[in-house]
Write a structure and sequence with these properties.
Two copies of one chain form a homodimer. Chain A has two domains: 11-180, Rossmann fold (3-Layer(aba) Sandwich); 185-387, Up-down Bundle (Dehydroquinate synthase-like, alpha domain), CATH 1.20.1090. In chain A, strand 7 and strand 8 (161-165) form a beta hairpin. Chain A has 15 helices and nine strands. Chain A has 389 residues and is an alpha/beta fold. Chain A has helices at residues 22-28, 42-45, 48-58, 75-87, 99-111, 119-122, 186-204, 212-234, 239-252, 266-277, 283-298, 303-312, 321-338, 352-362, 378-387, and strands at residues 4-6, 11-14, 33-38, 62-66, 92-97, 134-138, 150-154, 161-165, 173-176. The interface between A and B is large, with 41 and 41 residues. Strand 2 (11-14) of chain A pairs antiparallel with strand 1 (4-6) of chain B, so a sheet runs across the interface.
């Protein structure tokens, strides 16, 4: 087991109608001005926007707004937000939305204090030293950004999608009301299930042995995601299922499920190439496709761990590790299909002629390896793509 | 599922030799003076005292000391600590030890700002408004105080043992080095196992249905405790088992395993009477004895949950809930016996003639009920005692 430092200070306000208390929550932190960040029109349609704004007004909290954040959030919006609060400074950046909105808020909160272009954070050219506090009201269970230290942004010009991590951008608080996710579509719910699962599964499948505590917690959370995910998918207004999925979202990506392990996130790194380049591809759709291609290419190098996943999470009862591991990959792929997720590149409209240029971009023309317990070179990327074409 | 607020901001520094970095850790927080709280002579024998003191000196951190904290920590030592830092103020209270030392540090940190007697906190006569920051270096996996918001103190005069909870006393940081627990005796290791298990089990056995996420995390942590606890008990220098037990200790009692549930802690409340009155009884020994008496008295009111524990944690395969639940109680009792823990009151030298006065004290002469999904009156206390005499 590796040494580690773990810090998850986000205060969670969980339950029905909690969003109506946002003004009071912010007041208790003594913040008096807010940059309100949100996405498209949906929070206005559902009435959430009015609830939040009314609560801010009732508590005499000044706010300015940045709206129009899209999936695979763009650097241009980050810059727009920074310009806004340079003109009119605020004490808190409040994200109302899902991972894209929260990541934009984090990039603004951190980029605000930089002299350099905010892309320098995601390009790992500068280390953040300071950030404005970020708070969130979560509207979709998926990215886990509401408790995480990570922030993924796409550069509009270069199409490069890249993340940076810092404990400075862990939200100060997150408001989690499962009811706010009742209206999340079947497809977006399915995307969330894949995203949440992969946050834990990619931590679980690492080559540090004897992570008893971490493995058990990860197994529990993965079982929750698959079981309650399916319930929420079929019965969107099921409060308890939505609640379980929301908590799984938050605790799948705050670090708890990876304590003491090696952190590679190989599938995520491969996927960033797909959803960075093909903007219409949802991150989770990319993960859903790539997982089985990657897993079938590497499971024989870590059969014990893949088999443990198959046995303890999927209840597959096969005594041979390799057989069990492989069956687990197929069963998970079927699960993804059962909730309407794609499992081949062609379903994402990615053609075989796209494979080579993508492999070249991922490996910078075969000059770098994608990290992992098996490092992935260009040839292997092509093999993975071939398994899921 | 209940609404809840959850906040666990303690930064965990985990791994080998981490205690040698204590001076740097404290310096990074910008604290320059410390009250060092510790127990008996053991940290001097093991060399831990020297490591800590040298690291403080190397980083020019001033410190004063309060030593001699005993198990079931006493109010008199809390008062002594407060008097010390009233005379010579410090910026941080650093506990080096287990639950008793940490709880003493917390009571000092909070009591320091009170005009009233510090017992008012534990007697719930005042609500804490402010506390000095507390840091910990943990030397035994058991109480979970290193991440918890709770503080249990015994009043020397009245023998009353009582706890209070406040997020203000959650440690700012905790240093967790599993190697520091290699020298913990077999008996103390066993006590730790019971204590950790009971922190999660008492949260798990509550009457709020549909806590999918919380239940799965709790199941994972309880499996960890029982499996790795046995390994550590038989092989004290097994790093991975000690590591798992240490993490289980911290996350069994920080609140994570009870999210959205009802919090009763009935067995703990009954036990405080025993170890408060009979000072030679370790808290965990009291829990070990009381659990089966209590469980056998109430399991038929919550058979589904007791059966879930039996099936998922103890791998008992009985289809009938009541049968399965009952078998789980017996199996856990056997587990406790297998690690040398007492399971009857007579093993604690508590005689049948003690039962009535104890029941009277617990229920204040039959005028109050002990909270729980089954509320416990005096007659029921006597029934419980009778099952474990």
């Amino acid at each position: 087991m590796n040494d580690f430092t773990f810090y998850s200070p986000t205060k969670v306000f969980f339950g029905k109608d909690k969003e109506k208390e946002i003004g009071k929550i912010i007041t208790d932190y003594n913040y008096k001005s807010v940059l309100l960040v949100y996405g498209q029109s949906s929070i206005k349609k559902t009435g959430l926007y009015d609830k939040v704004v009314n609560s801010l007004k009732d508590n005499n909290i000044k706010f300015i707004e940045l709206s129009g954040i899209e999936p695979n959030p763009k650097l241009s919006k980050v810059k727009e937000g920074i310009a806004l609060i340079k003109e009119e400074p605020v004490e808190l950046v409040l994200a109302v939305g899902g991972g894209s909105v929260i990541d934009t808020a984090k990039a603004i909160a951190c980029g605000y204090f930089l002299e350099e272009d905010p892309w320098c954070l995601n390009a790992h050219l500068v280390t953040p030293k300071k950030a404005l506090p970020v708070g969130t009201i979560l509207t979709i269970s998926a990215a886990g950004s509401e408790l995480s230290n990570s922030c993924v942004i796409t550069n509009d010009d270069t199409k490069v999608k890249s993340g940076f991590n810092s404990d400075l951008i862990r939200p100060v608080f997150s408001v989690l009301n499962p009811e706010l996710t009742f209206t999340v579509s079947k497809y977006q719910t399915a995307c969330g299930i894949v995203d949440i699962l992969m946050h834990t599964l990619e931590r679980f499948l690492n080559d540090i042995p004897c992570q008893y505590f971490t493995d058990e917690v990860a197994i529990g959370i993965m079982r929750t995601v698959l079981e309650c995910g399916k319930v929420a998918y079929n019965d969107p207004f099921n409060y308890d299922a939505r609640a379980a999925l929301m908590l799984a979202s938050s605790y799948s990506h705050n670090g708890l499920t990876g304590l003491g392990g090696n952190f590679y996130f190989t599938v995520h790194k491969l996927e960033h190439e797909i959803s960075g380049t093909f903007d219409e591809v949802a991150h989770a759709a990319g993960l859903s496709v790539l997982y089985s291609g990657w897993a079938l290419s590497v499971y024989d190098k870590l059969p014990y761990k893949f088999a443990k996943f198959a046995r303890r999470v999927l209840d597959i009862n096969i005594s041979d590790d390799l057989e069990c591991a492989k069956e687990g990959i197929y069963v998970l792929r079927e699960y993804f299909k059962s909730i309407g997720m794609p499992v081949t590149l062609s379903e994402l409209n990615i053609k075989e002629s796209d494979h080579l240029p993508m492999a070249n971009r991922i490996t910078k023309n075969d000059t770098i390896l994608v990290p992992g317990f098996v490092k992935i070179d260009k040839e292997m990327v092509l093999c993975i793509f071939d398994k899921i074409k």
